[in-house]
Design goal:
The protein has strands at residues 6-8, 14-15, 28-30, 36-37, 50-52, 58-59, 72-74, 80-81, 94-96, 102-103, 116-118, 124-125, 138-140, 146-147, 160-162, 168-169, 182-184, 190-191. By secondary structure, it is mainly β.
């Protein structure tokens, strides 16, 4: 659809999969009561700039991926997300997900502007977590315990990394981080499979 600019669904609490994909004109969407969203929602919407879903708790794969103009994401109650979450979103600079506990593969990967990530309750993440983010320099993950393969793959600005509760890391752990000077993982037990 190339004509819809704004959507307001004030009473929707759940949305299935494959909705609102490739809407070139969509600039604004309001879902104040949505708690659960399926796969491939709001993918490749080239005019979307802001997302504010205050009650959202879980989302499926490819949620908010390839939205090239997105600059603001407010998901304060998101606890779990699927693969390809916010992947290829070129203008987003900062992401705070204060309630996130678990994320799947390719979480926040391939973003050109993201420089700061705050997820104080995140415990488990899949492979290629935070990979290929050329501006990422600040990461706060105090409760992370388990990470998949290619954690922080190819991030050139991170100098210090402290993960106090990390116990298990996948293959290619910290692969290709050319500026990393200090790394401290006091609880790490296993690296690789």
């Amino acid at each position: 659809n190339n004509l819809i600019k704004s959507i307001n669904l004030p009473n929707v609490t759940s949305i299935g999969s494959h909705c609102l994909i490739c809407n070139e004109a969509l600039e604004e969407i309001k879902l104040p009561k949505v708690k659960k969203i399926g796969a491939n929602f709001l993918e490749s919407n080239l005019s979307l700039k802001e997302v504010n879903f205050p009650l959202l708790e879980s989302c499926g794969e490819s949620f908010l991926s390839s939205n090239l103009l997105i600059t603001s994401v407010n998901l304060p109650n998101l606890k779990e997300c699927g693969n390809n979450f916010l992947m290829n979103d070129n203008l987003l600079e900062k992401l705070d997900l204060p309630s996130l506990i678990k994320c799947e593969d390719y979480f926040l990967s391939y973003n050109k502007c993201i420089n700061s990530v705050y997820m104080p309750h995140l415990k488990i993440c899949g492979k290629r977590f935070l990979s290929d983010n050329v501006e990422l320099s600040n990461i706060d993950l105090p409760n992370l315990t388990t990470i998949g393969d290619y954690f922080l793959f190819d991030n050139d600005r991170i100098k210090n990394l402290y993960l106090p509760k990390l116990e298990e890391a996948g293959n290619q752990f910290l692969y290709s981080n050319r500026k990393l000077e200090k790394a401290y993982f006091p609880e790490l037990i296993q690296v690789g499979s």
